Each structure stands twice: as C-alpha cells, then as structure tokens.
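Researcher: Let's continue the batch. This sequence belongs to Methyltransferase, and it's 179 residues. Same format as the previous ones, please.
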Amino acid sequence: MRIISGIYKSRKIVAPKNLPVRPTTDMAKESLFNIINNLFYFDDISVLDLFAGTGNISYEFASRGTEQITCVDQDFGCIKFINETAKAFDMSIQTIKSDVFKFLEKSTLQTNIIFADPPYDFSDEQFAKISQLVFQNNLLLENGILIIEHSKHTNLSGLNHFSYSKSYGGCMFSFFEVD
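Model: Same format as before. Here are the structure tokens for Methyltransferase:
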C-alpha cells in the first residue's frame, strides 16, 4: 500500500503478512479522498478510523494534514503496527485496542469523519449496528459523515441516515449524514 497525497506522497508502507486485514486498494482510496477533499479541509478535521487494520486510511489523513486521528481495532498486531508506523512517520495518531462495537457503545468522542472498514462478510445487522451506534450516541460533529466500506454485494441504502454510495471495482463506500 502507498500514501497517495500529502507530505508523505508515494511512500510505501509494507504491513506484516500475518495481520488479519484487507487494506483498501489504492484506486478506491484515491477516489474516496477526492470526495472527502471536496467536503473538508484536512487540517481542520478530526477522524475516527474503525476496524483500522493496517492504518492505511489514517496514514492518508495524516499525510494530508489531519492531526486528530483515532484508530480502533481489536487486533493487537494491528494496533502495534499502526503505533510503529505513526512513530516512524511522526504522525499524531492515537490508537485504541478494543472491540469496535464495545467502543462505540461507550464512546463520547465526537469527530468530523468516522470511517469504518469492517470485514466484508459482516451480516446486515452488524453493518446496521455501526450506523445505529454512531448516530444514537451522537458521535459525529455538525456536518460530519460516517463512511462505511463494504463489498459491492452489500446494500446499505435502507439504513437510517444513508445519503449515497460510490462503487470502485468490488469495493463500495456508503456515506451517512445527520438528517
């Protein structure tokens, strides 16, 4: 994986092969960040990266100037890798080792963008629970968005607060906003 833009543009990051992850492809990530770039100034926002995995999305935000980034993942190896990479690049990324659902149930952290990249084989109920907990617990700041990455075979358009989806190959991003 590589960082697409910003101060670390073109830097490659190689994650250990033993991590239980499926990093967002460079093509899909570049398209996603083109959308976000039209909605926000990167240096003015805060980001919560759920199911952070390798930290791929968080590194992209940090490279573009975002300083308030929190990653949540339950895998110790993922959290360790994110911490090591953030330190090597001098990125201000905070990590939390936790089950994402337990974190969302208790969290009071409000951010501009919440990005969730759960396993593609999640059930419809598990995808719905992410959105439900984010909005029920008021975790988005005014004009904030929740972005859920999922397979093109999953349809989240029936969930509350759904706004739109964008498809890139086998990957989709569904966007949710406060009504």
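Researcher: Any comment?
Model: Strands lie at 46-50, 68-73, 93-97, 111-116, 140-151, 162-168, 171-177.
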